[in-house]
């Protein structure tokens, strides 16, 4: 270990969302101070940090102010302009690097990078103009999904396509922005690997997580998974290879599809802690956010072993009706740990919180998790 940054130091966080908030909480628990740079005046992380610099991500004066006060800086948001990180890198310690972030910001660049490592992705075609559409059937077989290449999240900017005609109209409705057309994989399962990689290249994975998405948004995560050890080990190996290929430092995640044919297919990389790693907050010795602090500060990784089977359920704005959800219902179950992010407005599809259910088995945790979820929805 070289020169670890120790408690009492000040860490910087670019982005003020829930991932930033949970980083701030972990860092403060360990005795660090945190300064958040985020343009929204009332963000979940900004309101609990020691200081909130309310500014745009490309505001050089604000970035200078952040760098002047921070011993190291990280991010919670993959769409921070990589020039912002490049600017900060000249002034202080920054992880992940601007180059690692840049490789994950465009779906075409990301898929080309994953393929270059010999790891399978869904067959895809890059689409930058209408002429590219005419030849897509040389690369993919329908049905497919057209996804905008940059700034997509939680299934936003995605259109299912049954034929080339659908691709033309979807490309049109996306304003002819650069896209990727992905072949639709017949999914048996979806899993993710959240891991931490240190400055000296040591990789510490968390237990593999099994994910269920509804309408393109994560609904639940279960650990341990129901996939075989062989598939699980393959996913971890591939995630390790991706982290090393990016020379990544910090906590990151790789989402995988397990096809009906039993292939492991990398879907996407998250250069930050991940929603499917929220189970670690209550069910692992070390959370993905504590691990992010440890990696940023060049400390050794914490123990990632699982304390208990767990199911995490996301709480989207959809469960807010005319009144707030029935929290008493959630909190009356002693096995449930509730996490609310403190967002001011509950919009449909917006991630507002989550809860973890710890039980003797995943199936028991899932039963309790879904029972509670069905009673939660307000009118
Ligand atoms: P997030 O950032 O929240 O993960 P996203 O907008 O980046 O979301 P994707 O991960 O690309 O979205 O897709 C969301 C979900 O849609 C996937 O987890 C999967 O359930 C489904 N999906 C996406 N692409 C494919 C595909 N090629 N084949 C089958 N299902 C897919
Ligand atoms: Mg995804």
TrEMBL record:
One Pfam family recorded for the sequence: ATP-grasp
GO BP term, example: 'de novo' IMP biosynthetic process
Residues at which ATP binds: 107, 147, 152-158, 182-185, 190, 213, 267-268
Catalytic reaction(s) noted: 5-amino-1-(5-phospho-beta-D-ribosyl)imidazole + hydrogencarbonate + ATP = 5-carboxyamino-1-(5-phospho-D-ribosyl)imidazole + ADP + phosphate + 2 H(+)
Enzyme superclass (EC): ligase
GO molecular function list: 5-(carboxyamino)imidazole ribonucleotide synthase activity; ATP binding; metal ion binding; phosphoribosylaminoimidazole carboxylase activity
GO cellular component: cytosol
Pathway note: Purine metabolism; IMP biosynthesis via de novo pathway; 5-amino-1-(5-phospho-D-ribosyl)imidazole-4-carboxylate from 5-amino-1-(5-phospho-D-ribosyl)imidazole (N5-CAIR route): step 1/2
EC number: 6.3.4.18
Known partners and oligomeric status: Homodimer.
Family: Belongs to the PurK/PurT family.
NCBIfam families per record: PRK06019.1-1 (NF004675), PRK06019.1-2 (NF004676), PRK06019.1-3 (NF004677), PRK06019.1-5 (NF004679), purK (TIGR01161)
Role noted for this protein: Catalyzes the ATP-dependent conversion of 5-aminoimidazole ribonucleotide (AIR) and HCO(3)- to N5-carboxyaminoimidazole ribonucleotide (N5-CAIR). Catalyzes the ATP-dependent conversion of 5-aminoimidazole ribonucleotide (AIR) and HCO(3)(-) to N5-carboxyaminoimidazole ribonucleotide (N5-CAIR).
PANTHER family in UniProt: PHOSPHORIBOSYLAMINOIMIDAZOLE CARBOXYLASE, PURINE BIOSYNTHESIS PROTEIN 6/7, PUR6/7
Name used for this protein in its record: N5-carboxyaminoimidazole ribonucleotide synthase
Species for this entry: Methylophaga aminisulfidivorans
């Amino acid at each position: 270990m070289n020169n670890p940054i120790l408690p009492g130091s000040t860490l910087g966080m670019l982005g003020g969302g829930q991932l930033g908030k949970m980083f701030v909480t972990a860092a403060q628990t360990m005795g660090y101070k945190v300064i958040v740079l985020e343009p929204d005046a009332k963000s979940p992380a900004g309101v609990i940090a020691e200081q909130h610099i309310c500014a745009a991500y490309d505001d050089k004066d604000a970035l200078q102010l952040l760098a002047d006060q921070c011993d190291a800086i990280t991010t919670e948001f993959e769409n921070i302009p990589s020039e912002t990180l490049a600017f900060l890198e000249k002034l202080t310690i920054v992880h992940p690097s601007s180059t690692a972030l840049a490789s994950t910001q465009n779906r075409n660049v990301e898929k080309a990078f994953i393929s270059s490592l010999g790891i399978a992705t869904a067959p895809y075609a890059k689409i930058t103009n209408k002429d590219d559409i005419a030849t897509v059937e040389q690369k993919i077989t329908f049905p497919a999904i057209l996804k905008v290449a940059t700034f997509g999240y939680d299934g936003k900017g995605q259109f299912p396509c049954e034929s080339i005609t659908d691709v033309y109209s979807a490309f049109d409705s996306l304003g002819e922005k650069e896209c990727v057309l992905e072949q639709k994989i017949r999914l048996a399962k979806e899993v993710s690997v959240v891991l931490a990689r240190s400055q000296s290249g040591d990789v510490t994975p968390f237990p593999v997580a099994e994910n269920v998405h509804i309408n393109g948004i994560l609904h639940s995560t279960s650990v341990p998974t129901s996939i075989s050890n062989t598939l699980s080990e393959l996913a971890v190996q591939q995630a390790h290879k991706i982290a090393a290929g990016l020379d990544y430092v910090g906590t990151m995640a790789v989402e995988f599809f397990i096809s009906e044919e039993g292939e492991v297919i990398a879907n996407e990389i998250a250069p930050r802690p991940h929603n499917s790693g929220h189970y670690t907050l209550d069910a692992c010795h070390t959370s993905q956010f504590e691990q992010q602090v440890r990696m940023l500060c060049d400390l050794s990784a914490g123990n990632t072993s699982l304390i208990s089977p767990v199911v995490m359920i996301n709480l989207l704005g959809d469960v807010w009706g005319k009144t707030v959800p029935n929290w008493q219902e959630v909190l009356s179950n002693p096995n449930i740990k509730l996490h609310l992010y403190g967002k001011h407005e509950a919009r449909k599809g917006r991630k507002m919180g989550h809860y973890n259910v710890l039980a003797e088995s995943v199936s028991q945790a899932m039963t309790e998790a879904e029972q509670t979820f069905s009673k939660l929805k307000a009118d």
